Amino acid sequence: MDVEIKRDGLTLHGLLETPAAKTYDIAVLMHGFTGNLGYDKTDLLAEVARTLQAQGLATIRFDFNGCGKSDGRFQDMTIPSEIADGKAILDYTRKLPHIRHIYLVGHSQGGVVASMLAGYYPEVITRLVLLAPAATLKDDALKGNLMGVTYNPKKIPETLNLREDVVVGGFYLRTAQMLPIYEVAQRYRGPVCVIHGDADTVVDKIASKRYHAVYDDSELHIIAHGTHQFQEAARPQVLRIVSDFLQE
């Protein structure tokens, strides 16, 4: 069912799907940069949700501020604002009836948000899945590069045009340079599954290797021929790994 969650004057749009059971576990799914909760049935998060639901898990996925059907301007989006969105979703999820355990599943930039949110709430999150987590966004911000568009990292512009229809605010770039990504993420001590494709041209797999190195209890899967969206033959492999990990 569609849900609306308020956060600092914004309305976030989400989709909650639950099994016909008295109690169940739930996975919170977080999309990547310029993405959405997965309105197309072939989207990665849509397929992850269907796979988990077939295993008896509930899922809740949502549009970050400025994305999809949620309020806000994309230009005002930052990683801290997405963490605030994630907290609002987590607060909503924790109040749902019949919930046993809460899992976080984040793709790309959503993986960064999920990893930091788990670090802030280590006693709340039971398991964490990171799909091609884009922690290299900090490295890129320090170099002055965003998705191939360059700028002076010491004189950050007010806005940066990635495409004709995509404008990023300068505050996104400023905050990205100083994010304590791994420092916060490693506060989470529970089981972590990190998955990355070796053909990912958007986020270097070094990000996932770094995550694997800082966690106490993690498994790292490098998928042969896997793109950033884990397309074609890589997709079923990823769905199986995620499903198996959350069913353990």
Model description:
This protein is α/β, with parallel strands linked by helices and 248 residues long. The protein has 8 helices and 12 strands. It has a single domain, classed as Alpha/Beta hydrolase fold, catalytic domain (Rossmann fold, 3-Layer(aba) Sandwich), CATH 3.40.50. 33% of the residues lie in helices and 27% in strands. The strands form 3 sheets. It has an 8-stranded mixed beta sheet, sandwiched between helices. Strand 7 and strand 8 form a beta hairpin. The two termini are 27 Å apart. 43% of the residues are buried.
DSSP E strands, number = 12
Oligomeric state of the chains in view: single chain
CATH class: Alpha Beta
Order of helices and strands: EEEHEHEHEHEEEEHHEHEH
Q: Alpha-carbon distance between the termini? A: 27 Å
- Report strand order across the widest sheet: 1-2-4-3-5-6-11-12
β-sheet strand percentage? 25-35%
SSE blueprint and pairings:
Elements: E1 2-7, E2 10-17, E3 24-30, H1 44-54, E4 58-62, H2 79-94, E5 99-107, H3 109-120, E6 125-131, H4 136-143, E7 145-146, E8 149-150, E9 159-163, E10 166-169, H5 170-177, H6 181-185, E11 192-197, H7 206-214, E12 218-223, H8 234-247
Parallel strand pairs: 3-4, 3-5, 5-6, 6-11, 11-12
Antiparallel strand pairs: 1-2, 2-4, 7-8, 9-10
